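Escalated from tier 1: ribulose-5-phosphate holo job.
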Amino acid sequence: MVTVDHEHEKQAAAEAAANLVTDGMLVGLGTGSTVAYLLAALGRRNLAISCVATSPATEALATRHGLRIQPFEEIDHLDLAVDGADQVDPRCWLIKGGGGAHTRERIVAAAAYRFVVIVSSNKLVERLQAPVPLELLAFGLDSTLAALSGAVLRSAPRTPDGGVLADLHGDVSDPDQLSARLNATPGVVGHGLFPPTMVSMVLIGRGGEVESRQPVA
Ligand code: 5RP
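Tier 2 regenerated the structure:
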């Protein structure tokens, strides 16, 4: 039986993304175990860059690797954002938010001229599968949950922005429609469905190689 080393695949994809970064860039840093390899690779490159972080965990690790983190309050655009994903479908719809950072991750991805996604090959799926991570406002929480059949609160601390994490179970066969419904539901601060229109490229570690996939909008 052939065993696939997904950690090695994550590292290969992350290192390929790190090679896209050049001196002077403003870089958005995602969250998760794949991004951890990116932070190490960027630290080793010793570039003159500034970064914004999508979570306190990323900020702490990036700082340990010698990366300069700025608050994301007075920056209107980033040159590049790099992040992992939980699932990538053939069109490059993504499910993100396994680490609960999807609201900040979406803001950072949307602010970037290029949003590059880094994954191991086991993240590729033919069809997206529930659950879809949610971040909900605590105010009116039970009424928001009542409007979202299939939403289950996650046993996790509040987000750094005070949001409550939950996961939406149910049909994800039409991500466009589900995404529009979630965007229109009062009390939903963020969700983990990211459309192909946000994605510039997906870098996929597969065996010893790195493949790229372009979004189909
Ligand atoms: C965090 C995310 C992560 O990017 C996603 O969960 C993938 O994580 P990992 O790289 O650890 O597999 O969306 O909110």
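The chain has a mean pLDDT of 97.
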